[in-house]
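Predict structure. Chain length: 394.
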Amino acid sequence: MTFPGQPNLIRQGGALSRQGLLPMLILLTALAAAVILMATKPQVQGEPSEPIPATVRTMTVEPAAYTFRVLSQGTVEPRTSSVLIAEVSGMVSWVSPMMVSGGRFELGEPLLKIDSRDYENALASAQATLDRAIADQNFAQAEHARLAAIYGKQLASEAQWQQAQRSLNVANAAVLAAQAGLERAQRNLERTEIKAPFSGRVRSESVDVGQVVMPGGQLAVLYATDAVEIRLPIADSQLRFLDHAVIADGVYDSQSAPDVELTANFAGEAQRWSGKIVRAEGEIDQRSRLVHLVAQVRNDVRHPTDPLPVGLFVNAEITGSTVDGLVKLPRTAIRGNNQVLVVAPDDTLHFRTVSVLRFEDTWALISDGLFPGERISISSLQFVVDGMPVLVQN
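Prediction complete.
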C-alpha cells in the first residue's frame, strides 16, 4: 500500500547516508597513513657514552722523621711555698708595708719585728754567765797546774790532786754550757726580727702591730717567684709518644728534661712561656687513671713575655719522642677501616689498608702500609669503585 509522496522520502534518506559516510572514510584514510608512517620511520642507532673520570688531587708519599707533641693543661703553682712561723713569743712591734696579700719582698728583707728587750736582757745575762764560767775555768786551770807541780814532788795528797782535776772538768763543762746559753740567747734575739727566707710574694697574712705571738703561731703564707710549676695530667695512651726512659727516671736533669711550651691569654693578649718537664710523679691517679708530669718555668730568667703568674690556667705542649719513617697525610684522606685510596701508575684508584699511628688535628700519621713515591688521593669522593679511572689534577 502506498501513500501519496512516499518515493520522494526514500530518495532523501539515501542522500543523507552518503553524506555521513564520507567523513568516516577520510578519518580512516588518515589513520591508515599515520600507521604506515610510524611503521616505516628510520631507526636511530644510539652509541654508548664513555664515563667521565673523576678528578682527584694527590699527595706523594714521602716518609720522614716526626717529633711528637703531647698536649695537656694545668694551673700554675709556686715551686716553693712556706708558712711563716714565729719562733719566739712577744708583742709585734713593727710590720713591713710589704706584709700584705700580694706584697713583694726580696731574700733577707725584714718582714716584722717582735719586742726584743727581754731577749736583749737574756743575751746580757748569758754573756755574764759565760764570763763567770771562764773566770772559774782560769782559776781551775791554774790550781790544777800548781797541784800537778807539787804532786810530782809528793807535796800534795792524792785527794787534793783528784779534787783539782774534778774542779777543772767542772769549770770546762760550765764554760761549754755558758757558751751554748749565749748562742741560744743570741739566736732568740735574732729571731725577734723575721726576715724573708727567699724572694717572693705574700699569699696571705694574719699578724699586725701590737699582736702577741707565740712560738709556732702562723704569721703569713709566702711563695717564691723565681720559678713556678704546672702539674700536667697525661693520659696513659699518650705516654707512648714520650721518651720511656724519661718517664721511668722520675726526676730529670737539665740535659734530658723534655721541653714544654705553655700558652695562655694574659694581660689582654696571647702569650707563650718556655719551660722544662722536671719530674714525673710515680703513681697513676686512681680516679682519673692519669699520670702527672710537672713542668717548671724559671721566672728569674729573662722572658719575652711577662713572668708566668701563679694561678693562671695554661695550655701545655710537651716535646715527645722522634720516630723515623712516618707519612703525614690529611685526616680526610683516611676512609673507613683505616683505608686510603692509592692512585696506580695507570691512574686508577685502589683501596689500601694502612696503620695509623696517631691523629693530630687535621693530620694522620701513617706508620705502615705505604711506600715512597706512591700517590695518595686526598680528594673527597662520594662513590668509589676499586680500579675506577681518575683524572689526576696537579
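Summary: Residues 117-152 form the longest helix (36 residues).
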